[in-house]
Amino acid sequence: MIRKNERRKKRRAAWILGVIAALSLTACSSPFSGANGQKDPSPTRAETGFEVTGPDSYDSADTAILVDWNTSDKTLTFLNLELGRRYTLSLDGTTRFYDKYGDAIAIGQLQKGDIVDITFLKSKKHLTTLQLSPQAWTYEGAERYEINMVRNEVSIGSEVYKLTSNTQFVSEDRSIESMDLNPSDSLTFLGIGSQVLTVRVEKGHGYLRLENDENFVGGWIEVGQATIQRITDNMLVLVPEGSYQVNISHKGGGGVKSVVINRNEETVLDIGDLEIPEPQYGMVLFSLNPTSAELYIDGSLVDPSGPISLEYGLHQMIARAEGYQSITQYFRVIQESVGINVELDANETEQDKNEEKEDPEESPSGQTTENYYQVYIDAPENVEVYLDGNYMGISPCSFVKIAGTHVVTLRKTGYTTRSYTIEVDDEAKDISYSFADLVSSSATLDNSITGMWDSILGALN
Questions:
Q1: Model pLDDT for residues 278-336, shown as the tens digit of each residue
Q2: Would the CA dihedral through 8, 10, 14, 19 be positive or negative?
Q3: pTM value > 0.70
Q4: Residue 345 φ/ψ, nearest 5 degrees
Q5: What is d(CA 395, CA 382) in angstroms, rounded to the nearest whole number?
Q6: Cα separation of 311 and 336, whole Å?
């Protein structure tokens, strides 16, 4: 009986050892293990019966534009470049972020409009990795550029790039329209190949209003090197953000004041303490080449055959002749007599030579005034309307149609001022514009990217 019990114990021990060996073999061939016995980072639902989201789990990849985020849902939204479709992915503590060189970065270093390469688990809509795309190029802080929204082109230096239906326009991590851009803005362009995919405002613009300026209407305002403009009643000058010395001049008087312009904010400058002395005059003799050129001083046609008496201060000169390139520039009279040589360059192309001669009756900015077609601003209603800084009235209102690029500024007390760059055609017909309602100043969103990403990080932790 004792021997039978011993044999039974031996058989049981052998069976246990066999089970252990079988389990060991199974572990070596587990669907969670790779060829070297290492853990497989991406087990499938078919292999395991369930899906694990880990630091290497993904089944899809894409090159896209980061267009939005949601701090409460802990999600990022991307724009697919091929189909132009948006999709949203979740993120958590396993999601990893890299710069274009593959080095780890913090999530707070990302910005809306970034072009990124991502991997994600499509079935779970979970973001696995995000890298600033190595194939994307960047022009940072460009100030010399030209955007042509008619041809959908951007010229940066000698290079020409295409705008696409996917191109994103961003300011302070807020999506904007192309019309919100101003030629004075400093921009960063991001793209791939010949396409611009993101236009980001690095240095925007604000507004300058003069107070107690009655004695200076008709004079000139110079804001650093950014702006030279004739002073008109109730004007609102668009100025790139920054610190400036403002020079006010009229009839030989005026002065210089300092001002700081903040983005999308209006700054009021009181010039009531500037004095206007008795006007002084200087004699200016112009020498024109070709001698047949017409000369306009402050918008009026003058006879350059003899000296011209002009008040001390800043003046605008326009010189033009058929077959030559026109010149528009400013000069300052500060002494009793002065001579100015004006040399016009001949047009270089047949297209230039065949261009229709401009109407001689011009405003100081070189714009024709004999045009009876109108530009109508229909919406929003009951806001102040400014054209290139000059007050036009309360909307709905209209003004003379002048072909070219212009800036329409909308203002209302208690609301955030907005400016739009418009391209006015030269067709013989009226045109109308309706813009979005102004946003209440008290309802302005918090655009601090640091605070936003801190919220995301706090939620993830």
A1: 778 899 999 999 999 999 998 899 999 999 999 888 888 999 999 898 888 888 888 88
A2: positive
A3: no
A4: -90, 140
A5: 5
A6: 10
**Pick from 251, 182, 243: nearest CA to 389:** 182
What separation in angstroms does the CA of 263 have from each of 176, 212, 259? 14, 24, 13
Which residues lie closer than 8 Å to 95 by C-beta, 6 or more apart?
126, 127, 128, 129, 130
Answer for the pair 127, 76: CB distance below 8 angstroms, yes or no: yes
Backbone angles phi, psi at 375, to 5 degrees: -110, 125
CA pair distance 76, 139, nearest whole angstrom: 25
Cβ neighbourhood burial of 183 (10 Å; 0-12, 13-18, 19+): middle
pLDDT of 226 reads 72
- Grouping H, G, I as helix, E, B as strand and the rest as coil, residue 19 is helix
Torsion 180-258-366-203 (CA) sign? negative
Stated length of the chain: 461
For residue 184, which of 116, 261, 98 has the smallest C-alpha distance? 261
CB 182 within 8 A of CB 199: no
pLDDT in the model for residue 162: 97
Contact predicate 305/248, CB 8 Å = no
Nearest to 263 by CA among 238, 241, 239, 237: 241
Note the pLDDT of residue 457: 47
DSSP label at residue 39: B
Give the per-residue pLDDT at 88.
97
Point out the residues of the chain with pLDDT beneath 50: 1-2, 4, 19-51, 350-371, 445-461
Burial class from Cβ neighbours inside 10 Å (0-12, 13-18, 19+) for residue 396 reads middle
d(CA 120, CA 107): 16
> Which candidate, 275, 292, 385, places its Cα nearest to that of 344?
292
Q: CA-to-CA distance for 102 and 100, rounded, in angstroms?
A: 6
Closest to 127 measured CA to CA, from 66, 188, 217 = 66
What tokens appear for 157 in the block?
Answer: 């230096």
